[in-house]
């Protein structure tokens, strides 16, 4: 067994020729699969106005996923707090906790989940630009609802007692890929998830998080989870092929060209005509057999001093995604669970 916990991040990919509804069916299926395989958490991401990713509203997906599973923790990877009021997020996730007591995670991020136009479309007040520098204050307000810690003279203090009850509080996390998020997580005494699949240079940031961590009522020691890009297959060649749709998708995204997740054949043809696309980005990818993957994930975990590793990928072939997580679970010796009815 590994010294770190294994979890899953799902971005609900939409393959070419399929719909967002199909992608959500796949998300529910993969969640049940991950639960049965013995993974610890299953998080869904927030992306807006994307023809490739269906998960625009994690708060809407978490409930059905929790109901479709039995033991795996379910959460957001993440909720982009600048778009929402802290009280609304607190209400929503306390309600989800009432639905699935003891199994709900609230991963919080500052990224917009889209471009400037999307940011503006998501704002209720479009007379001014979104203020990213108010994130620490909004985070503090949100945590105060969970901790029943707003001062008595605060205008919103009476609202703390109105939060949906009966399921306990969600487990809050801070997500990020920069030093700002590491420092905020340390200051708030929160567990921290670093997006290595976005920025592979995060080891110094998680080290700073550990060094500056302030114990809180919810966490006495720093806790690091690292989200890495992982595809496992029966052969290394097969795993490399399965990664090509995401390589094409990412290359076009960097050119502001948005498409559904292409098929392997479409991606191979395009990459043959655009060979530089495979070498023009710095993101870390882990491809190979389950044994290869295990060794590479071990290396990343050691680099970050990770307590948990969260595995993410985008593929056009849903069966291959299922197989990838199955192969990894078997390689690590995860304990299978009974499937949900």
UniProtKB/TrEMBL annotation:
Sequence intervals crossing the membrane: none
GO MF term list: oxidoreductase activity, acting on paired donors, with incorporation or reduction of molecular oxygen
One of the Pfam families matching this protein, by short name: Bac_luciferase
Signal peptide: none
InterPro entries per UniProt: Bact_Lucif_Oxidored (IPR050766), CmoO-like (IPR019949), Luciferase-like_dom (IPR011251), Luciferase-like_sf (IPR036661)
Source domain of life: Bacteria
Residue intervals of the Luciferase-like domain: 13-307
Recorded GO CC terms: cytosol
Family affiliation: To bacterial alkanal monooxygenase alpha and beta chains.
Protein's recorded name: Luciferase-like monooxygenase
Naturally occurring in which organism (per UniProt): Parasphingopyxis lamellibrachiae
